[in-house]
Backbone:
């Protein structure tokens, strides 16, 4: 059983959704980002998505664009992100870590080389925004062979006819994007999200996590009633940005993220309570 | 396809949208169903006589096709070698080849029932062509344009606004074409139900590279016939500038299976391909990668981060290129060459003074290659340039460079 499967199974037994947190790897600098990363499990994160910064994040809103720019300006590389996971794993053997980003840096790194390094570092899964099932041969199939989960995004435009195609090689969990839009936009209808989650669940036994537009503990509690996990990213990356003084990390940077995660964790705990 | 041979270079793309290694559909899941739908609608339109007839009628009466094939007599004498010809796409309505593609796609958007159009633009030529067809077909449109480009292409910004388009300046990155395309993609993902993304170049996710090429192929098809009528043979060489590469692929496609015709694509060499991040020559100075929905040659660093690139020409200032060009580069069917800012400026002035034609800075890159080629060729030979756009939009920035203002 992979770390991801194990974690979702444990939470199912506890009858609560997973809190999945996204932070950008290397934002605002490597050392601060590592401290944020390592503080997340203690603050209540059940699964961690670590962003691999990319110069052209076509599916991201301004907050995550800026987070990626800060990381790149501080010298972050894909190798650097893998190093962060390696360091994290020395202290935490159980929290699943999923790398999220875009394909080109991996393609340039070399797919096989990347998968081997990711496996060694202790990466559990990948979410690659610009690799739909039509391009499964590129990275999805090799990742599955290497023993790394490939987590697929499904969206409101993914209808019942297409869902099986999208779910076919998905593993770990399914990431339902709550709206047609970019990260950080406002969620329109929580009710519609619940229906969509039920629809996806009728096609798969995998856990379904919902992301995009979840900002508060109330959102987390409401969406978490139906979903097996809720994903929060923009508010955390935004908190990093807000905490900076003259563009540099301050003594509030780590705690700002930690406090929001703690509040969201309280939200998911009362989701079904 | 209208060709048959198994070894034809004109058979691409395959059913996965690939030209060899290049192309594909590297997009977010939100867009995937739409792209598949678009492909279906395009296949249906392609074989629908009513659609083709409407497009043909617009080409003749709205665009002014066929565009003339013009013998550049003084330039020929000056260069002292091959006869120099221009395929005059700059005489089209809106002043460039871009209208050919916009008309094809707007008819498609109507067929698909879309109610809003978005587009990206660099030099503003595609933005103007899009705003034009949106005015004609009464659809609201939003044009994404890098803030730097808004500044250096003011006349086109004004034209777009007068045509009723909303011009949204993009300040992310260096504020050029790549950033405009990112922002257009973000808008599209958000408004996918109502919105049609009218991509201006032969790049992006499948089926765009194929579709845009098909709409632009009228350039090469006409040119072939016109040259045959004038000289009773095929030209010895054809030349076009390459940014994303839509006028180039439109010019080249009809000649790909005629190996006796040498084909040259002029990339933006900027300050020189040896200058780091000082050019926009993705094939002669870049490497394969994945961006904006397709695999193709890109300007990127060793970590796969995309570089901004530089060119004096806002229309060539893009760190990628259409995937079919990448394929033609690898197979060596087309020779891609970098042309520097200074070479393009010199060509711009020569053309203006000798032929009384002010070319777009983009097209001046192609002309600079013609200026190099013609003297090396025999007087009984011919080289044809696709004069893709007119330079009215560039007079201010060229005037600045030359110290005339």
Residues:
């Amino acid at each position: 059983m992979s770390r991801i499967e194990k974690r979702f199974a444990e939470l199912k037994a506890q009858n609560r959704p997973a809190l999945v947190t996204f932070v950008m790897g290397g934002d605002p600098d490597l050392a601060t980002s590592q401290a944020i990363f390592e503080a997340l499990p203690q603050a209540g994160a059940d699964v961690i998505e670590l962003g691999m910064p990319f110069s052209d994040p076509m599916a991201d809103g301004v907050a995550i664009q800026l987070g990626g720019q800060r990381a790149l300006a501080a010298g972050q590389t894909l190798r650097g992100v893998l190093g962060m996971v390696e360091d994290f794993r020395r202290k935490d053997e159980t929290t699943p870590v999923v790398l999220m980003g875009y394909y080109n840096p991996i393609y340039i790194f070399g797919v096989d080389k990347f998968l081997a390094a990711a496996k060694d570092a202790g990466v559990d899964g990948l979410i690659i925004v610009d690799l739909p099932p039509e391009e499964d041969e590129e990275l999805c199939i090799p990742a599955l062979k290497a023993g790394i989960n490939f987590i697929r995004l499904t969206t409101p435009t993914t209808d019942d006819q297409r869902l099986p195609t999208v779910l076919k090689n998905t593993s770990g969990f399914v990431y339902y994007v709550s709206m047609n839009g970019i990260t950080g936009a406002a969620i329109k209808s929580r009710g519609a999200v619940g229906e969509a989650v039920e629809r996806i669940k009728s096609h798969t036994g995998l856990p379904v996590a919902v992301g995009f537009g979840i900002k508060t503990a109330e959102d987390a509690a409401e969406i978490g009633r139906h979903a097996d996990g809720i994903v929060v990213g923009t508010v955390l990356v935004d908190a990093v940005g807000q905490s900076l003084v003259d563009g540099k990390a301050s003594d509030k940077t780590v705690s700002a993220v930690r406090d929001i995660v703690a509040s969201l964790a309280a939200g998911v705990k009362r989701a079904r309570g | 396809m209208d060709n048959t041979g198994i070894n034809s270079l004109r058979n691409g793309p395959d059913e996965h949208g690939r030209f060899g290694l290049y192309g594909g559909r590297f997009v977010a899941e939100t867009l995937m169903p739409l792209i598949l739908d678009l492909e279906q609608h395009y296949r249906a339109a392609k074989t629908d006589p009513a659609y083709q007839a409407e497009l043909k009628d617009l080409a003749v009466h709205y665009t002014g096709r066929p565009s003339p094939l013009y013998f550049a007599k003084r330039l020929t004498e000056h260069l002292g070698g091959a006869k120099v010809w221009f395929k005059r796409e700059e005489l089209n309505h809106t002043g460039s080849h871009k209208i050919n593609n916009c008309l094809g796609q707007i008819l498609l958007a109507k067929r698909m029932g879309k109610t809003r159009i978005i587009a990206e633009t660099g030099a503003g030529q595609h933005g103007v062509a899009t705003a034009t067809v949106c005015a004609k077909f009464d659809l609201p449109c939003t044009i994404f344009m890098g803030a730097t480009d808004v500044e250096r292409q003011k006349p086109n910004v004004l034209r777009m606004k007068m045509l009723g388009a909303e011009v949204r300046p993009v300040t992310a990155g260096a504020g050029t074409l790549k950033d405009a395309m990112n922002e257009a993609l973000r808008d599209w993902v958000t408004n996918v139900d109502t919105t049609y993304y009218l991509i201006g170049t032969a790049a992006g996710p499948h089926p765009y590279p194929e579709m845009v090429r098909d709409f632009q192929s009228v350039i090469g098809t006409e040119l072939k016939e016109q040259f045959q009528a004038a000289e009773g043979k095929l030209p010895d060489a054809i030349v076009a500038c390459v940014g994303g590469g839509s006028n180039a692929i439109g010019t080249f496609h009809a000649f790909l299976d005629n190996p006796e015709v040498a084909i040259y694509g002029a990339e933006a060499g900027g300050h020189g391909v040896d200058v780091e991040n000082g050019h926009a020559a993705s094939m002669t100075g870049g490497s394969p990668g994945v961006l904006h929905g397709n695999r193709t040659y890109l300007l990127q660093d060793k970590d796969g981060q995309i570089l901004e690139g530089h060119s004096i020409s806002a229309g060539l200032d893009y760190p990628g290129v259409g995937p079919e060009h990448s394929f033609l580069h690898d197979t060596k069917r087309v020779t891609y060459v970098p042309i520097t800012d200074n070479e393009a400026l010199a060509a711009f002035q020569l053309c203006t003074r000798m032929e009384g034609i002010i070319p777009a800075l983009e097209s001046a890159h192609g002309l600079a290659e013609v200026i190099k080629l013609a003297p090396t060729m025999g007087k009984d030979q011919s080289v044809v340039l696709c004069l893709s756009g007119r330079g009215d939009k560039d007079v201010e920035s060229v005037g600045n460079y030359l110290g005339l203002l």
About this structure: The longest helix of chain A spans residues 253-269. Chain A has a mean pLDDT of 95. The CA atoms of residues 1 and 193 of chain A lie 29 Å apart. Chain A is about 45% helix and 15% strand.
